[in-house]
UniProtKB/TrEMBL annotation, chains A, B:
Cofactor: FMN
Protein name listed in UniProt: Oxidoreductase related to nitroreductase, putative
Family per record: Belongs to the nitroreductase family.
Domain of life where this protein originates: Bacteria
Organism: Geobacter metallireducens (strain ATCC 53774 / DSM 7210 / GS-15)
Lineage: Bacteria, Pseudomonadati, Thermodesulfobacteriota, Desulfuromonadia, Geobacterales
């Protein structure tokens, strides 16, 4: 798939099949994250472990429900809603809390992985709400289980897997966003 | 160019030819920025105007020199250093200051544009230091000239153009970054 096609085909997939992601495909996705323009260290933790994914999912769901942020509270209240959408692979992207641009470093790596996954025919989704789980009371336990280095924060995450035919949690039609002005 | 090639070929180009970027190529780069996974509004300001680019360049250079950040101070002190590297096109990516994730929204859009530019055979570079210019004393004037809406902050930027054969400001060998761990 050429780069333009990958950019326009990429969308937020919110329902996944059980089918595992082949190891070589996953390695290429992770490698794509490492080729991003990072000005500072990042850590990619690739969580295939089902128990840990469920734990992160459940803590995130609870944190969303109690976040005080109306959009997140409403999402968490939807029947059957799971923040990790049962994806078979979760990739956590973390960076040092002492570096203000860690969030930006993580985001550009995430985008590379989303596009590489799209090119490989996989569904994917960029996740931010799960940072609530790692920043909350259960955070230090989750950080340890996920192998995040001391002093690092989970800045964002990506889920990947084979897309299920239908998702009841898709938030809307896929449209192009962003206003543009030319200053000539 | 396929998506994997674009991801691995993308690099930070810090010297540009005068050659203008064709309008249709630039429009595709800008459109790529609008297809990113943004959870909130962003504004893309495409600055081709030479006078405004020079003003932003000069204010950034001064801000870097007085930033108190040693790395930025050292870069600014390099003979002939120009923060915008004389690129013919500067794309400012801004988002509302009231949305905490505006920086992340801007970053994923930036990465899309960098990859689209790479696929089109153009050089590009992700810029963060120029946010100093817009956040500083001359900021409101620059924001107005660049057509940035009220309440928006320039979160990051991308420069694009045809790469010059050599750059004396390249910071080091292009290497893959980011530590990886698998949690199975």
């Amino acid at each position: 798939m050429n780069v333009t096609e990958a950019i326009t085909a990429r969308k937020s997939v919110r329902a996944y099949l059980d089918t595992p992601v082949p190891a070589d495909v996953l390695e290429k996705i992770v490698e794509a994250g490492r080729w991003a323009p990072n000005a500072g260290p990042i850590q990619l933790s690739v969580v295939r472990n089902a128990e840990l994914r469920k734990k992160i999912n459940d803590v995130t769901l609870d944190a969303m429900a109690h976040s005080g942020i109306e959009f997140l509270r409403q999402r968490a209240a939807l029947p059957g809603y799971q923040p990790l959408y049962d994806a078979p692979v979760l990739i956590l992207i973390s960076g040092p809390v002492t570096i203000p641009i860690s969030a930006v470093n993580a985001a550009v790596s995430a985008e590379n992985m989303l596009l590489q996954a799209t090119g490989a025919g996989l569904g994917s989704c960029f996740l931010l709400s799960l940072t609530l789980a790692f920043d909350g009371a259960d955070g230090s336990d989750l950080l340890q289980k996920a192998g995040i280095p001391d002093g690092y924060r989970v800045q964002c995450a990506v889920i990947v897997g084979y897309a299920a035919p239908e998702s009841k949690f898709t938030t809307g039609e896929r449209t192009i966003k962003g206003a543009v002005s030319y200053i000539d």
